[in-house]
Design goal:
Layout (H helix, E strand, L loop, with lengths): L2 H9 L7 H14 L3 H11 L3 H30 L6 H12 L5 H16 L8 H15 L3 E2 L12 H7 L1 E2 L1 H15 L3 E6 L2 E8 L2 E7 L5 E3 L4 H7 L10 E2 L4 H16 L3 H14 L8 H5 L1
Length: 294
């Protein structure tokens, strides 16, 4: 029996009320691996029965989330022994949210933007000049724009959609900004504090300056860091600040999605994101210590 034939037989059992049968189907799908997702997508596309089509859609989302959550767990485990990229984590998160975002689609959308930075590569620039060029390309040539600051719509939170439209909520834009900076080789790291972060430019192990992503990448020195945070309603306590690796942006991004889906009262999506977030570890960056204790 071919894989597609076996999958058709398994799909016919998706609505079987017997828990033993359901568990056997789930186990076999898990054994078949992520390659079943495009096959199920094709079945869904050709399915004439509306009710069964919805059932297929639900199963695709569920199985895909399980596969991608496991991929994110392996991603986090790999990071403990070898370098990983924010780009890879962002692809996994995007595919988890939308099974139709293939690696090829995500790569194409990303490199349509990244090639603009590669064309501007040059030696001999100062750190300020490097950031000036990067910000000009990101905010003015590519026209990435922060919108939906109160996090009200799903579309503005999707990394793939934001790469295509160049518009996204603050967390989608920030994640893409750091992903592009990583690709361009800029030493930007998130300076994290209870409730958020700010990109910091690191030179010789020191925080040289910071970037305000809500103001088209405005660069400001440490002397203005306190005013920047107070302006966002965040208490200034540098002792609680910690420079983290670039991939922490993935945790921050997923946290923002949990908040969004909670506002949208989409419990199923929130649960998928929570599982993915826990696959990355227990650290939280947008929730203060006090709120976690509550």
């Amino acid at each position: 029996m071919s894989e597609i034939e076996e999958l058709r037989h398994l799909a016919a059992l998706f609505d079987d009320p017997d828990e033993v049968v359901s568990a056997c189907v789930d186990n076999r799908i898990a054994q078949m691996g992520p390659s079943v997702i495009p096959l199920l997508e094709k079945m869904r596309h050709n399915e004439p029965d509306a009710a069964f089509k919805r059932l297929l859609s639900d199963r695709i989302l569920r199985y895909n989330a399980e596969f991608r959550t496991e991929d994110l767990r392996k991603f986090a485990l790999r990071e403990t022994t070898q370098p990983v990229t924010l780009y890879e984590g962002c692809f996994l998160a995007s595919s988890l949210l939308n099974p139709q975002v293939s690696r090829e689609k995500f790569e194409e959308a990303f490199y349509q933007c990244a090639c603009e930075f590669q064309a501007e590569a040059a030696d001999g620039r100062t750190a300020i000049e490097e950031m000036g060029v990067f910000n000009h390309v990101f905010f003015h040539r590519l026209r990435f724009t922060v919108c939906d600051q109160n996090l009200t719509t799903e579309k503005n939170a999707m990394l793939y959609d934001t790469l295509k439209s160049r518009r996204g909520n603050p967390f989608a834009i920030a994640t893409i900004y750091m992903m592009m900076a990583e690709e361009a080789g800029l030493p930007l790291l998130p300076l994290c504090f209870p409730g958020g972060f700010v990109p910091a430019y690191i030179e010789d192990g020191k925080e040289l300056f910071y970037v305000n992503l809500l103001q088209n990448g405005e660069i400001f020195p440490q002397s203005r860091l306190k005013d920047y945070l107070i302006g966002q309603g965040i208490p200034f306590d540098h002792n609680r600040f910690l420079l983290r690796r670039q991939t922490v942006m993935l945790n921050i991004y997923l946290e923002s999605l949990c908040y969004l889906y909670d506002k949208l009262e989409d419990a199923a999506s929130q649960e998928r994101i929570m599982k993915a977030l826990y696959a990355l570890g227990d650290e939280r960056f947008l929730i203060s210590d006090d709120k976690q204790e509550e």
